[in-house]
Amino acid sequence: MMLPTLFATTYQCTDGLTLYAHVNAKTPLTCIEICIQSGSLHETKTGQANLMLACLLKGSQTTSHADFSQALESLGGSLSLRCTPSAQYIRIEVLSDYSRQAFSLVWEALQTPAFIPSEIKKEKDLIISQLKNAKESPAYLAQRAFLYSIYGAMAPALLVDGTPQSLQHLTREDLLAYHHQHYRAENTVIAISGDHPEYVLQAFAATAREKTYAAQHPQVPLGNFPQIADARAHYEHIKTPDKDQCVVLMGHLGIPRLHPDFMPMMVLDVLLGQGPGFSSRLPQVLRDQQGLVYHLSFSGTQNAHLYPGIIQTYLECSPHKVRTCIDLVRQELQNVCEIPVSPQELSTIQHYLQGQLYFCFETNAQRCSYFLHRHIFGWPEEHLTTYIQQLQAVTPQSLQDVAQRHFQNSNQTLITAGPNPHLSGASL
């Protein structure tokens, strides 16, 4: 089974904007994804970036919100927005015959948003309501405390929604300020995938190129993230009423996406917790063999981007089983450090990961996402070939070396949430 040919024509505009146009004639649909390489890590007020994005496409200075929504609906298009710590994404999916009109509509609202006060209030109220509901969840509270312990001052930006308190103080001027500072041509990447991407390029030439896209605003350094120091060992329990089971989060600072150990760490992800079914070691031991947990996941690459991610084990169990679960997780991680993985087990994981890769490019949206990530991380055109070569180059010895480098860390964070766990005599 061969990987799809993922070639894109690259257009580098004189003002710094980059476009990737990829032809996929298997479907009459076109996906256009616009990436603004600034996210919540670049905001000056907590929740500012996410709220700005939520209010961005509520009409433009010349088109009302109602007319904008009606026009997009008449084209049969779908629109999705996503704010991350490092970037913001605006995705349009529409029949290719209407892709030019859809792009022109969205591009106008993106360049000259109205930021209507009533719409800002609606989005604020919605996010605040969602945050208040989330506080009823032990998993949410534990994850929040976990991020704060590991990332410190960087943590609020990783929780992109902000807080009810920070949102209450955000104004229309705050949204305008973020938009004016970060929505610039040299900060924008567009990926197009469909059977006729030239339709969108024509729209871009006819509309976007006629205007200066925020070129007058001062530049902000990109990828200039705060330095993160490995946090000290930390334990915290969050008591939540009326809950029968405990949420347990344990781990520490990990590695960025471009770290040379990232590929072996992906293999360790599958080995320990992300394999198909119950094939990974941690679910096998704690759930299948011991019957200790209701849910368990492990990741050594969680949150990994241009900044370091986290190495994290998440599980849910009865309060009196917490101590045993922690000990077993630590024992399994130590086993990987001390005992080489068998060649057969490694080969199975390599075949699984390579097989999964073929399903990552089935839709135009997936292909757009790939080209944007290729741009952000600076991957070469032959990245997929290199990816497979790196995967096949992983050996039992290299896995053991990576585990020893990254799992044997005394600066462990342990967060529990729910009833009081039975942790007498516990040590981090």
Describe this structure in words.
With 428 residues, the protein is an alpha+beta fold. 43% of the residues lie in helices and 18% in strands. The chain is built from 16 helices and 11 strands. The chain has helices spanning 48-56, 65-74, 99-111, 117-134, 138-151, 155-158, 164-168, 172-182, 197-206, 262-274, 281-289, 322-338, 343-357, 364-377, 383-392, 396-407, and strands spanning 9-12, 18-23, 29-36, 78-83, 88-95, 188-194, 234-239, 246-253, 293-302, 310-317, 413-418. The strands form 2 sheets. A 6-stranded mixed sheet has the order 1-2-6-3-5-4, with helices on both faces. Strand 9 and strand 10 (310-317) form a beta hairpin. The two termini are 47 Å apart. The relative contact order is 0.16. The model is unreliable at 209-218 (pLDDT under 50).
What's a quick, concise take on this entry?
The chain has 428 residues and is of the alpha+beta class. Helix content is 43%, strand content 18%.
